[in-house]
Amino acid sequence: MQTRSILVADDHPLFRAALKQVLGQIYPDAELQQAASVGELQRQVERQPGLSLLLLDLHMPGALGFSALSWFIGQRPHTPVIMVSANSHPETVRRAIDHGAAGFLSKSTGVEAMEDCISRVMAGERGLHPGLDATAAGASLQSLDVAEALASLTPQQFRVASMLVEGLLNKQIAYELDVKEATIKAHMTEIFRKLGVHSRTQAVLALGSLSVDPPEDLTTPPC
Q1: Secondary structure (3-state) at 199
Q2: In the chain, fewer beta carbons within 10 Å around the N or the C end?
Q3: What range defines the domain where residue 118 resides?
Q4: In CATH, what number is assigned to the domain containing residue 170?
């Protein structure tokens, strides 16, 4: 049997360790990888073509809402993703499922429920959100279109798009990525084309459709 390779992407070391402990109990022989940012996630994806599962924090550094989920699904369409977040607002859960997450776990989920969800996703089930209410309004058509566009971006184009949202100018992005400004302009042209926009402002507005506003109360909803 092929060894399972599971990636835990979360910027909080303690929660990464907790998830890896849970995974180790379910799959003691699995190769457990970790990432603390979208940049590290991308590097792991490049190094691990045979990923079996991704557990992805909703608020990863370098991501805007569901942008990292959308990009990853484009790169690894057959690898299931479980979104993990303290933000278990019904609208957030529903949008995550609409954008292709196989499941959604609140960070306050008990170990047994977490193990059950992970095992069922690995067995091929989808749309799981144990103990959460996913009956709220789902993803908009615009955000689904933007997600499809992001899924088609190369890793470098995705980095450029993320920095665009952060407000960096072309020359600043070029400096950060250690490439020529002309290269960034070429990436921008392709990003605009895929998003169906004609300016930086339009691109930022389009990408903003994937953002997630945390609700005022992040307490766990009733089971």
Answers
A1: coil
A2: N
A3: 5-122
A4: 1.10.10.10
Residue 95 CB coordination number (10 Å) = 27
Show which of 67, 90, 122 is a domain's final residue.
Answer: 122
Residues 162 and 88: their CA atoms lie apart, in Å, by 24
CB atoms within 10 A of CB 182: 10
- Measured in whole angstroms, the distance separating CA 155 from the mean position of its chain's CA atoms is 13
Count structural domains, the chain.
2
Q: What is the pLDDT of residues 101-117, one digit of tens each?
A: 999 999 989 999 999 99
85-98 pLDDT per residue, tens: 988 888 899 999 99
* Nearest one of 2, 115, 112 to 55, comparing CA atoms: 115
Q: Residues 164, 74: one domain?
A: no
Neighbouring CB atoms inside 10 A of 97's CB total 21
Cβ partners under 8 Å of residue 99, min gap 6: 66, 69, 70, 73, 139, 143, 144, 147, 210
3-state SS string for 20-71: HHHHHHHCCCCEEEEECCHHHHHHHHHHCCCCCEEEEECCCCCCCCCHHHHH
- Domain-located, residue 199: yes
By the 8 A CB rule, do 204 and 169 touch? Answer: no
CB of 102 within 8 A of CB of 123? no
